[in-house]
Amino acid sequence: MTPKEGEEWERSHYTPLSERREQHAMRHAHIFLIVGALVALGLFAVPAQAAPVICEKFGSTTIQNGRYVVINNVWGADTAQCIDVNQSGGFTVTQAAHNKPTNGAPASYPAIYAGCHYANCSTGSGLPMQASASGFGSLRSSVSMTYPGGGTWDAAYDIWFDPTPRTDGQNTGAELMIWLNRQGSIQPVGSPVGTVNLAGGTWQVWFGNSGWNVISYVRTSATSSLDFTIDTFYADAVSRGYAQRSWYMTSVQAGFEPWIGGAGLAVNSFSFGSGGGTTDTTPPSTPGTPSAANVTSSGATLTWAASTDNVGVTGYDVMRATGDTFTRVGGGSATSFTDTGLSPSTTYRYRIRARDAAGNVSPDSAIVTLTTQPGGGGGGSCAVTPTTQTAWNNGYVIQPVTVANRGTSAMNGWTVTFPLPSGHTITGIWNATYTVSGGTVTVRSLAHNGSLAPGASTSFGYQATRPNGNTQVPSGYTCA
After folding, report:
1. First and final CA of the chain: distance in angstroms?
2. Which pLDDT value is given to residue 54?
3. 230/235 Cα distance (integer angstroms)
4. Which residue ranges does the record annotate as region Disordered (predicted)?
């Protein structure tokens, strides 16, 4: 997702990413530069496969027998751009006459990718793949890049997720961007929400929404290469409530967004697949029994001893139950978790499981049982105000849904409920978790936004589909 200055710019001036990157790309056949060959009386042969130079705005080609697709994709400008495609797995921007203002969208996104993007699919990628599939945890990608000394640009992965296994059209789940480097006064869409250590580096996490969730990881110290499991970053996005395990990954892309210049930007190598070498089938060890602390009427903090693994633990799942069925309510790479939005005077049971990079899952830990305190909300008075950001024939985005403490004492976690009209389906939510039961949606706060001082407020948002021609949006919100 490209940078922006302020929420209003994003909404009114920034074309959604899939449209701005590829809205015309599928209208054009793959463009190949015909490389001249000396042919004299049959003594010289034409090369079987030449690496093309692509200068057409939306031109693309495949390399390595279709394993990857390379796209020029000058979606945001009419200035010239050419890329020299490397059959071994990359490309170099050889010409880029861009000069775009940095408070707007970039000129292009030249990239290499595996998977499907607007029906332009590589071969053998195994995508789309559901993020809950057993093989998802073993998916890896690597990239090596070269950067020029001048210009204004970012170097970023762009990884797409959709609630369905679609191979064409706009993805409406999540867009996960991983910024290895940037040059100039540019930033991702949205606003920073935290910092995390992943894949051997420290990343500032940004969140925004453009009709789908946009989660950007900006490396605090630039790097020219990265080798990582996709789930390293996706698990973090899931733990923050910005993505869901039921969604499908449709493509993994790596490239550049130039505003000014861009010549010299290069992907030297790119790979995507289920790792290499010997398959890891060893699960992590059982996590330690969780212990509960800071139990209030609406929340509790769990801690546990770390698991070990022959390769490395990538994250933990926190499972919660009030009856016999355990449901994942959060997790991440840390060995602690604060659960919020609980009901007063209610008994909850928790257990923990660990995951590694190959998708192996540990045995469940022993169970800890706790009972929340009576009362609720710390004596605060909760108010909720929804806003319809946008609506179309068969869907809508509600954001912000503002949750405010109108009382005189602190709130320690909040819960918002509302009826979902018949035929409507929530496809994504951000800054909160949710469940749907009997047509009632229950939204709960996360660890970072559950505590509200008197007069303070926070917000969440969600996207939903509805039957064609139905103009309803939810109403009747209540907050506790």
Report:
1. 35
2. 95
3. 9
4. 275-295
350 φ/ψ angles, rounded to the nearest 5 degrees = -130, 145
**Which among 178, 280, 182 is positioned nearest to 227, based on CA atoms?**
178
- 291-371 against 377-479: fold identical: yes
* pLDDT over threshold 90, residue 412: no
pLDDT exceeds cutoff 60 at 73: yes
Strand partners, 272: 141
The residues assigned a catalytic role are 175, 257
pLDDT tens-digit map of 338-397: 888 888 778 899 999 988 766 678 999 999 988 887 653 334 478 888 888 888 888 899
**Measuring CA to CA, which residue among 303, 302, 313 is closest to residue 339?**
302
| 377-479 is classed CATH 2.60.120.620 | no
- In one letter, which amino acid is 339? D
| This prediction's pTM | 0.54
> For 108-132, what is the mean pLDDT?
92
How many beta carbons lie within 10 A of that of residue 369, not counting itself?
Answer: 10
- Residues composing the chain: 480
Q: Give the pLDDT score at 203.
A: 95
As a CATH number, domain 7-273 is 2.60.120.180
- Any idea which fold 291-371 has? Immunoglobulin-like (2.60.40)
